[in-house]
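Throughout our pipeline, every protein is held as a single compact record rather than as scattered files. The record that follows is passed on verbatim for readers who wish to inspect the format.
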Amino acid sequence: MNITEPRIERYLEQTRIPLRLACTEASDWPVVLSLWFLYENGRIYCATRHDARVATYLRECPRCGFEIAGDEPPYCGIRGQGDVQIDPSIGGDVLERLLVRYLGS
């Protein structure tokens, strides 16, 4: 997903809550789960283990929905749909940046 509106970009850069990801499992049932996210260069990055169920689901069907929104007033956030691209070659780097973003070290 490419995002260019400055207000949305600021929100994604400053928000430190998990992204809610919706995808479809092998039995065609929807699944919603939370992942840490990182926004850079108009794209949203997440990391998970290669053998995680969500990675398997997304390899089988890369279409997803997502929401990044807080649970307390004032309610605001973004939601959308996209096609996932899985790139194991950057997984370690993304995970490292996610740890710094969410844990500070």
About this structure: The chain has three helices and six strands. Strands lie at 19-24, 30-35, 38-40, 43-45, 63-69, 77-83. Residues 50 and 88 are 8 Å apart (CA to CA).
